[in-house]
Amino acid sequence: MVSMMSTAKSVESRVELAGNASSDMGVDREAAWQKVLARDSAADFFYAVTTTGVFCRPNCTSRRPLKANVRFFKSAAEAQGAGFRACKMCKPGTASSNPLDRVRRQIEANLDRPVRLEELGRVAGMSPFTVQRLFKREMGVSPLGYQRALRAGSLRKALKQGDSVTNAIYEAGFGSSSRAYEGAQLGMTPARFAKGGKGEKITWAAARSPFGWVIVGGTERGLCWLALAGTAAEAEASLREEFPQAELRRDSSMARWVELAVANVMPHAGAGKKTAAAQPLDLRGTAFQLRVWQALRAIPRGETRSYSQLAREMGMEKSTRAVARACALNRVSLLVPCHRVVGASGSLTGYRWGVDRKRQLLEAERA
């Protein structure tokens, strides 16, 4: 008990020293406090809370402390030297050497407003042009595209959790319903997405192929579903599960797209391949996923890429897992050939429509 009281007293004395003797280490206290209130990720100081003994970054998402209990420091080392410990949420002791990480955090913290390149340039210590170029090379999308993708993800999550369309739109950072429709890339209006595609009209057809049954589904914008299955019943069930509330109508004329899609991976595809590749696709995903799916379509027939190779070709070396996840969520097989991506060792790894079918597809393309 005596030892615990002694330790507490020691910490208390160090905190008191930090508050009185350090005079906030040369930081403008009032200006710094305003940045804490704004959770400014570009701020170049740290704040500590005397009642908890913890120090944080200004943009930490933890509960804001009382102003009277806050002390400011120019560096994490100074805060630690004064007896404070690093926050487990914002991890202020691990500073990123990558300025693009600061850019990313600035975008993520301000989804409710436009974040201009000039602002991101100040955060990164670069010119706006350099920020745009490096961010797109690293992330695969522009800063604006990244912000839109984050908003779209928030909108999808809110809609799936049952929020009203209006609340979900504004909580996700969109200024209006029209902005949400333009930027969310749901493939349908937010209202229809929230209702499982209710009101969406999808025509479809299924047919046998050398790889089992193939089903295609399309909206007025293009093909939105192309799946492989073991039986006709399984093929139709896959479409209904993906779009449970949509108006589905069988259309025998759609069967020609089954033939063209299969021809895309068969030996001597010829003109059929070109016709299939020209078919409009109604791909529904985030900006990042669309970028990955486009990269898949650029892999030559008969060739494969590992997930890490694909990430490198996209200029996104650190995004291998995200690339693999985007491949797994592909809704239009054959024409968006995710079967051409394999493990680093050449193993077939997983495939949404079965590893054996993936093997058959690759063998057919190499024949």
Description:
By secondary structure, this protein is α/β, with parallel strands linked by helices. The chain has four domains: 2-86, DNA Methylphosphotriester Repair Domain, CATH 3.40.10; 97-195, Arc Repressor Mutant, subunit A (Orthogonal Bundle), CATH 1.10.10; 201-268, Methylated DNA-protein cysteine methyltransferase domain (Double Stranded RNA Binding Domain), CATH 3.30.160; 287-366, Arc Repressor Mutant, subunit A (Orthogonal Bundle). It has helices at residues 2-20, 29-37, 76-81, 99-108, 117-124, 128-139, 143-160, 165-171, 177-183, 190-194, 232-242, 255-263, 270-277, 287-297, 307-313, 320-328, 355-366, and strands at 46-49, 54-56, 70-73, 85-86, 201-209, 212-219, 222-229, 247-250, 305-306, 341-342. The strands form three sheets. The chain has a four-stranded mixed sheet with strand order 3-1-2-4. Strand 1 (46-49) and strand 2 form a beta hairpin. The termini are far apart. Residues 1-23, 162-191 and 269-275 have low confidence and may be disordered.
Would you spell out the secondary-structure blueprint of this structure?
Elements: H1 2-20, H2 29-37, E1 46-49, E2 54-56, E3 70-73, H3 76-81, E4 85-86, H4 99-108, H5 117-124, H6 128-139, H7 143-160, H8 165-171, H9 177-183, H10 190-194, E5 201-209, E6 212-219, E7 222-229, H11 232-242, E8 247-250, H12 255-263, H13 270-277, H14 287-297, E9 305-306, H15 307-313, H16 320-328, E10 341-342, H17 355-366
Parallel strand pairs: 2-4, 5-8, 9-10
Antiparallel strand pairs: 1-2, 1-3, 5-6, 6-7
Helix pairs in contact: 4-5, 4-7, 5-6, 7-8, 12-13, 15-16
